[in-house]
Design goal:
This protein is mainly β. Helix content is about 5%, strand content about 40%.
């Protein structure tokens, strides 16, 4: 089953205020296990695989809303 992971800044800074600077250290976890982290900069989000540190595809980012990542196979919950 495909699941979406929604992440917000670790501090409660609104995303609109955060676009001017990079926010790092966002975490995506499935069943309590860290599977990826994310970086947001200038209205664009990049999701990084926690083990390989390679950028993953299929990132969806919308200004003013929580950042929603469409996971690839590595982020599918079994």
């Amino acid at each position: 089953m495909l699941k979406l992971a929604v992440v917000k800044p670790a501090t409660n800074v609104a995303l609109d205020e955060a676009y001017d600077k990079a926010i790092t250290g966002l975490a995506i976890s499935l069943d309590g296990k860290l599977v990826a982290s994310a970086t947001i900069k200038q209205e664009r989000a990049t999701i990084w695989d926690a083990e390989s540190e390679i950028a993953l595809p299929k990132v969806i980012s919308t200004r003013g809303d929580p950042v929603t990542f469409l996971p690839n196979d590595k982020l599918l919950a079994s």
